[in-house]
Amino acid sequence: MRDSWATLGVDLHLEVTGPGVRRGLTDALREAVRGGRLAPGTRLPSSRSLATDLGVARNTVAGAYADLVAEGWLTARQGSGTRVAEGAAAPRPAEPRTARRREPGRPAHNLMPGTPDLSSFPRAEWLKAARRALNAAPADALGYGDPRGRPELRTALAGYLARARGVRADPEHIVVCSGFSHGLRLLAEALRAGGLRDLAVESYGLAPHWTLLERAGLRTVPLPLDEHGTRVAELPAGGAVLLTPAHQFPLGGALRAERRAAVVDRARRTGGLVLEDDYDGEFRYDARQPVGALQDLDPDHVVHLGTASKSLAPGLRLGWLVLPPALTPEITRLAAARSTGVLDQLTLAEFITSGAYDRHVRACRLRYRRRRDALVEAVAAQSPDVRVTGMAAGLHAVLRLPPGTEESVVRAAAWQGLALTGLSWFRHPAATTEPADAVVVGYGAPSDRAWPGALEALCRVLP
Question: Residue 59 contacts by C-beta under 8 Å, 6 or more apart in sequence?
């Protein structure tokens, strides 16, 4: 224990110059405080620790500290150590008044789709899971490890996805990624390297995903749409397609059973590939047969993509790919360039296996269903000409508007401080489907406390 003092200091970068060491150290510390590198209240290393770091005598550091205390730059108190004095740093230039004001147009209510209620994140349970996972983790878990991700998480995901989503998952063929976009980028790179040029997508979806695919060298080709959903029969032979079959985003419908079977059968016969975005598959509300994963129909020709972004929080940056065996080696090679944080992987694995994940999802499902029901009831009462669709699952609904009113509703929402998106924003630029007037309302993002006000503001802007 004689050398325990050596671990008690804090790192401090100083460039000591000048004719004398003590004077040079004093000048360097003073300049660090004056320039703002050492903020008021910052605790400095002990004289012994700093002397060891700088390779000088302890009395030299003690003398420099004493000089700066006398000048008012530092304070020294028994038991509190040596700290930068409050008010010692030179005042910073005043920021422009515009930088301090509230951002113009910042919405009072967020009804953007695709975002969960972040205030409901299970902090206490997550912290407990993190502690258990870290205590149980072997030392080598903190190394570089398998580019597919920690085996604890891949095993937990395989069990959960098989049980809850009907996925036929082998931990050996699961790759953990940093969210959906990272997983899609890995797939795009692998497909482009394999010679693919075009990738079919749904007529309505997310422009950032299309941009990502096109930057990887793939041309996105929108499939036609009818009243029964995406017409997968138009898929080119031997190609690949990106679908949200369980709950289409943003239209909200599930891909019909015969079309689910058709797209998988076509991929099997022609050597194609289906990329299944299980967008918000955990959140189904109506008492009907659950829509399982498309991957179950043919694990050799369907990639199942999932994330914790909707069930927990997008800030976790945790997603996963359930891959066909033939594609696993190439995706693993590409994934090695950017792996996800080990501690969050271990925590999520413990969160799933302990049952906390299921409990959280069930609680969220109940909360979101109540919001959906309140939305349907309020719209029916306030705006009978508006039809609510696509709300059997997920975190959003589509409000079908009278013809020619989408733009005016979105503009009125902005005036009301309401973040709201028109359906046209999600339409692929090359889509031939006739556009319809509608807004996509996300009811996941507001907190329980903010939801009533958000709903009231929405009803004020509807025709």
Answer: none
